[in-house]
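Lab notebook, design round three. We kept the backbone fixed and only want residue identities now. Task for the bench partner: fill in a sequence for the structure below.
Input structure tokens:
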């Protein structure tokens, strides 16, 4: 599966074309398509990094949805968030769970 992203150009292409290029072509084009880490693991790593840094906004929501789309189960994401809570902070886990529960609905 090849990741192709256009959000940078769609949302910032006219305002910040260099940033849009780095977002779409380098971050999501080259980095996300690197085969050294499988997509499921890459999704988990990204969720952990965003949670740990306190980025519990729409970018985390996007990456939680991406994680689900790439095979991360509800059980796996709850275990990941719980584990990271002890290292990154309990309030960050609460914020992440509030986003995740709406994505992994049964």
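Proposed sequence:
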């Amino acid at each position: 599966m090849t990741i192709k992203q256009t959000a940078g150009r769609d949302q910032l292409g006219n305002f910040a074309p260099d940033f849009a290029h780095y977002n779409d072509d380098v971050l999501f084009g080259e980095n996300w398509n690197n085969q050294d880490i499988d997509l499921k693991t890459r999704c988990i790593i990204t969720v952990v990094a965003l949670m740990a840094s306190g980025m519990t906004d729409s970018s985390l929501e996007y990456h939680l949805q991406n994680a689900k789309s790439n095979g991360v189960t509800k059980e796996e994401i709850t275990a990941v968030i719980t584990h990271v809570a002890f290292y990154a902070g309990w309030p960050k886990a609460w914020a992440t769970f509030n986003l995740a529960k709406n994505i992994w609905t049964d």
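Keep this in mind before ordering anything: The CA atoms of residues 83 and 93 lie 9 Å apart.
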